[in-house]
Amino acid sequence: MRTALKLSLIFILTIQCKSVEENKHSENDWVETKKSREYFDYAAYIQKYPKSQNIEKALSEYLFLRDSVAGFLGCGKYNTSLSIVDDEKVLFDGELKSIDSLSFTTFEYLKNGIPNVSTHKYNVQIPVSKMWDSISKVHFDIVFYDKPFPTESLKLALNEVSDGINSYKNYLSVKWYGLPYNKLTNKKKNGIDELNDTRFSFFDFSYMQGKRIIPPPPSEFDINE
Length: 225
Hints:
6 helices; single chain; alpha/beta; 16% strand; globular; five-stranded mixed β-sheet
């Protein structure tokens, strides 16, 4: 009994220390990020720290800077749209998904693309290597139709999507180097990061005043539950 209690306490302390360390990194990175006048730096920050208390500030700055860019084209051919429905559900490319399924859905989407349609891949040189391989082209467009933005639901969704992207980074690491991402050298980690750390885009469509079209949910998903 005492041993189990000690192990529980050690586990709790480990989680708390990890959280404190992550918050420290988040705040340090925010100090540097907010000096930037490049909107994609704020998207990268949000992707890296989806649970940060600075999300609203980062999102506001992203939208301001992005809208200031002349000739910004917006959604791309290989972009996947997400919009918050409520605290538990989002529309993922027009399909109703539970927020807690987004990590797996994101990873599978990055790894495989759309079955029988397209892999959404392009060729890159493997970092710190002379070999080449293909990786996903997919970016994630997070779309808002209401103000104020649903910050807490947004954090939950972004955390799951970020987790899926991190799983994809780990998949590439094992595929390319035979090692999990956290065992790589910093140079190899940075190479994988550069290919995957700017997969978020954000769009404020609140001016449409509720005119979005929501497709019917799949038969196995009851939106009223």
